[in-house]
Amino acid sequence: MNNALFLLLLLLYVSLLAFVGYITSRGASNATFFNANKNANWLLVSFGMIGASLSGVTFISVPGWTAASGMTYMLMVVGYFFGYLFIAGVLLPVYYKNNVISIYEFLGIRLGLESYRTGSLFFLLSRIVGAAARLYIVSMVVQVLICDALGIPFVVTAVSILLLIAIYSASGGIATIVFTDTLQTALMLLAAVMAFYFVGKAVVPADSSYIEFLSGHPDWRFVEFTGAKSWWRQLLGGASIAIAMTGLDQDMMQKNLTVKRLKDAQKNMVLLGGTLLVVNLLFLSLGIFLTEFAANTGITATGDKLFSAIAMHPSLPTVLPVVFFLGLLAAAFSSADSALTSLTTAFCIDFLGMKSNGSTQVRTRVYIGFMLVLLVVMLLIYSLKSESIISTLFTAAGYTYGPLVGLFSFALLFNRRIKGWAVLAICIAAPIVAYQISLWAPQLGYAIGFELLVYNGLLTLVGLLAISKRA
Questions:
Q1: Which parts of the chain sit beneath pLDDT 50?
Q2: What's the DSSP call for residue 130?
């Protein structure tokens, strides 16, 4: 397929999103941008959150991860499900009871202004890194499929992707994203199912079924008992990552808070957790098919480049590159657009004190500012040339989300107050100490995996106890 067709698909796709954005943003106020006036349908929100939870990182990285790790990632997904149950049973009731727009307002209510601002600051840092990684994935594929042949440098590609996202999401905010996420999730799942069918058809022998082939494959292993990917670390890491990257993340919770009733928001989380079990199993199984296809055809691409290399292979049906490209765009856009919205919301409310009647011009300037920040971080990621973005992303999350885990745990468990900016010093020191521990641990025969997030949170919690006073 030629790059002109991919460019046409990109423009048509963004035009459709822009049309949805125009419809949903008419007469939009700050309340529309921040929480969709709290009248979103919970089932629509739940379905749309599948795409936001998976993102372009999952779409690209998870299938490419199978060759190195088998199906062990599924235990992390099981951990996610338990984390979502905790969010539904513990965190959502707290957010709805306090009627917050930014979830970090809860820290201000319980601990004080400095803790409130510190929590929001660490969210901004965490989400900037995560959103930039997701945007890098889609920009990289657009670069390979369209821009390299036209001689367009990566920086121009990255700027163009950000501008395309702004076209449809800058005005309507979360009200627009609830609808665009639904469309994007449907496209992403369609692409995954079609890739699973066509690539599977190319590698599974005629006398065998898909299930028989997968269950007999050497990579069909779910449990490891030793090492950084041992089963208990995967479960613990998955649960803690779900709680931190969903329950303590303004991006994901902002979608939930568009639902009027607490019970509907709770149903949304439980349904999301169950659906992600099935969807991630599909992506990992697809990874086995991709590995076999690459071995049979001499394709040398690995990691994040494996899926895209095979999707473009001339022996596969022409429709596959089309749905792959649209699915990737959908997966990446669904997380990137909501990230820009949540970053803007958190900064406007937590640092500027803006409410529903605030200036929309100021909000727009903040939105543009975060676009520029994401661009800079994307270029830094591009310079690193990481082989697997998802592994890098989870490792980074262990450091940036750890202080949020500590802050919220402290606020929920203890009736104590924290005065002054010592809270910021604790939240900076905890990841540094956690990093040093991760370097020392192998000397004792223990390699820290994704459970690093838990240790980071515990260090933050202990530090907060040391500087706090009885309320």
A1: none
A2: H
Alpha helices, DSSP H only, in 111-173? Answer: 113-142, 148-150, 154-169
Question: How much is the pLDDT for 186?
Answer: 86
3-state DSSP of 290-353 = HHHHHHHHCCCCCHHHHHHHHHCCCCCCCHHHHHHHHHHHHHHHHHHHHHHHHHHHHHHHHCCC
Predicted local confidence at residue 386, as pLDDT: 58
**Domain locations along the chain:** 3-385
Q: What are the DSSP E strand ranges found in 324-439?
A: 416-417
**pLDDT recorded at residue 467:** 92
Q: Give dist(CA 228, CA 450) in Å, integer.
A: 8
Distance CA 211, CA 344 (A): 45
* 375 token code pair: 């661009």
Alpha-carbon gap, residue 403 to 424, rounded angstroms: 9
Q: Enter the pTM of the model.
A: 0.82
> One-letter amino acid identity for 19?
F
> Which residues on neighbouring strands pair with residue 40, listed in sequence order?
259
CA distances from 166 to 5, 163, 393 (A): 23, 5, 24
Beta bridge partners of 469: 417
- Rounded to an integer, what distance in angstroms lies between the CA atom of residue 23 and that of residue 193? 30
Residue 40 is given by DSSP the state B
Tally of CB atoms within 10 A around 301: 14
Predicted pLDDT at 385 = 66
Q: What are the DSSP calls for 167-215, one per residue?
A: HHHTTTTHHHHHHHHHHHHHHHHHHHHHHHHHHHHHHS-TTS-HHHHHH
Query: Model confidence over 168-210: pLDDT tens digits?
Result: 777 777 777 778 778 878 888 888 899 999 999 999 998 889 9
Cα–Cα distance, 17 to 11 (Å, whole number): 10
Vertex 279: Cα angle to 145 and 218 (nearest 5): 85
Residue 451 DSSP SS3: coil
3-385 sits in which CATH class? mainly alpha
Q: Which amino acid is at 408?
A: F
Q: What angle do CA 143, 148, 152 make, to 5 degrees?
A: 85
Looking at the DSSP bridge assignments, the partners of residue 110 are: none
**320 vs 148: CA distance, rounded Å:** 21
Token readout for 328 is 């990737």
Instruction: Give the Cα separation of 104 and 98 in Å (integer).
Output: 11
pLDDT at 117: 95
Instruction: Tell me the three state secondary structure of residue 469.
Output: strand
Q: How far apart are alpha carbons 141 and 3 in whole angstroms?
A: 11
User: What pLDDT is attached to residue 318?
Assistant: 84
